[in-house]
Specification:
11 helices; single chain; 252 residues; mainly alpha
């Protein structure tokens, strides 16, 4: 394949990943690559994490306290992604602990209404992310900015892994429409996220990668036991849990 063709393919993959995972006004013009484009998911984390870091840094420069800088950064993350990962976390919590059978859990997860478990999961997850970012901004906007980017990238590297190694739990939905990616694409996603972590956090990156991978393993095992595979909601829940783990590991 010619070098120019490769670059065009990579650019199309990045555009597809951005169009799928964010609300940024970027049209996905090439569907030919399908799930092979998941290698670019950590780059989406770089973009949304970078924009959130910029928001928090500006707030810090304007003299706002760390708590408000953290809150504005978190709000930026949520707005940029349309809360799609938060929605997945809530649906997963409702389904996993609100249903007694695989079929009931999948049906609950498909329901657009939120239940008690979903509300509790969102409250706890949002509080955890805000608290971690608050403490990171107290350490300095540079530290918080690095944390935002690294946690966003590593948490999105977990998603291709679940897509590649777990079967689809249902014959429809967002994850099913994207398809099962080739396993090398999932490993490329990890390599990109790990490199970003190494550049921004140094040797601490090794621990961060371990924590993100561990959360992916936990969610994968739970998803296989509860519903027999993965869905888009499972991917969103994994992203949220891995992001929280990475943020708190930065505070250790």
């Amino acid at each position: 394949m010619a070098k120019n063709d490769t670059r065009l393919m990579e650019a199309a993959d990045i555009a597809r990943a951005i169009g799928l995972l964010t609300r940024l006004p970027l049209t996905d013009t090439d569907n030919s690559r399908g799930a092979a484009a998941v290698w670019a998911y950590p780059l989406v984390g770089l973009i949304v994490g970078g924009l959130a870091a910029m928001t928090g840094t500006i707030a810090h420069w304007l003299g706002l306290p760390p708590a408000l800088s953290a809150l504005l950064s978190l709000a930026t993350l949520i707005v940029l992604t349309g809360a799609m990962h938060e929605d997945g976390l809530a649906d997963t919590a409702d389904g996993f602990w609100g249903g007694w059978t695989r079929e009931a859990r999948l049906e609950i997860m498909k329901d657009s209404h939120i239940g008690t478990y979903g509300v509790i999961a969102l409250i706890l997850a949002t509080a955890a992310r805000w608290s971690a970012l608050w403490l990171l901004f107290q350490a300095g906007p540079g530290v918080a900015g690095a944390g935002l980017i690294v946690s966003a990238a590593l948490s999105r590297a977990t998603m291709p892994t679940l897509m590649a190694y777990l079967p689809h739990a249902r014959p429809s939905g967002l994850s099913h429409s994207v398809g099962a990616p080739p396993k090398p694409a999932a490993w490329v996603a990890w390599a990109i996220a790990a490199l970003l972590a190494l550049l921004l956090t140094g040797v601490a990156a090794f621990g961060l990668v371990v924590w993100a991978a561990l959360m992916a393993l936990v969610v994968a095992r739970l998803a296989r036991r509860k519903i027999g595979g993965q869905t888009g909601d499972i991917l969103g829940a994994c992203q949220q849990i891995a992001e929280i783990a990475v943020l708190f590991s930065l505070l250790a």
